[in-house]
Write a structure and sequence with these properties.
Layout (H helix, E strand, L loop, with lengths): L1 E6 L3 H9 L5 H8 L9 E6 L14
């Protein structure tokens, strides 16, 4: 895991650039207690390590 500071970003773009898969936005949202992929203002976001278990943005059940 690592931290990222973003200003007016969106989780789709962050997931694509940090994890190589825009569908991973939901896992970033869950870790950070977010429900909206659109961010406003300055935010400190925790980025999880990519895991093949989180393919297609769906975590293990």
């Amino acid at each position: 895991m690592h931290n990222l500071t973003t200003i007016d970003g969106n989780l789709f773009a962050i997931a694509a650039s940090e994890l190589g898969d825009a569908l991973q936005w939901i896992n970033i949202a869950k870790i950070n207690g977010l429900s909206d992929p659109m961010l406003s203002g300055e935010k400190q976001i925790v980025i999880p390590d990519f895991s093949s278990a989180f393919s297609d943005g769906i975590g293990p059940q």
